Amino acid sequence: MKWLVMFPQDVLAEFIKAVITLFIIVDPLGNIPIFIGLTENLGKEERRRVFRVAVIVASALLVVFAVIGRELLSVFGISVYSFMVAGGILLLVIAVKLVVYGGWEEKVLSPESMGAVPIACPLLAGPGAITTTIVIIQTSGVLVTLLAVITVSIIIWIILRFVEPINRFLGKTGSAVVARVMAIFIAAIAVGYIVDGISHLTG
After folding, report:
1. Residues of 158-191 as b/e, b for ≥16 C-beta within 10 angstroms?
2. What is the pTM of this model?
């Protein structure tokens, strides 16, 4: 823990705050039943490959948006609030499919594609996480933001490594029930993104 002493107290406080905020928004623990549902038909090695791709893609997206997020949106003439509306709609579609079918039914997706969409984006690096990353870089700076993204990415990777034991603990029926319940929360969050985005765009 000596490396913590090297940081000024204000920077350390900003780093801890950024990690906690980003982790809550990404919510890998709450998404575990959805991850299980999305990969239930995959073998052990394929599932690990999916999660490895998901962590890499999600981390890369957050790093990119941490560094050039606002500028990137400006190039395409997209506001953060428009991004929230679009991301909210995509999340809502995923939530509806999870409630109705109990899983993501795109059978043509390869493990690499599934890791990128929908697990990495929008489930991990969704509009909330990307918007939060942009806000953190404006309030805490590039270094704190990048360290927070790396730290949260490591935590996500560790959590995903324990998905299989959690799956065995819940059982198939338990996973299906929890996945559908969590999908309802995802839908509520999606509606929140849409409402917040529209209110700022029309306000």
Report:
1. ebbeebeebbeebeeeebbebbbebbeebbebbe
2. 0.70
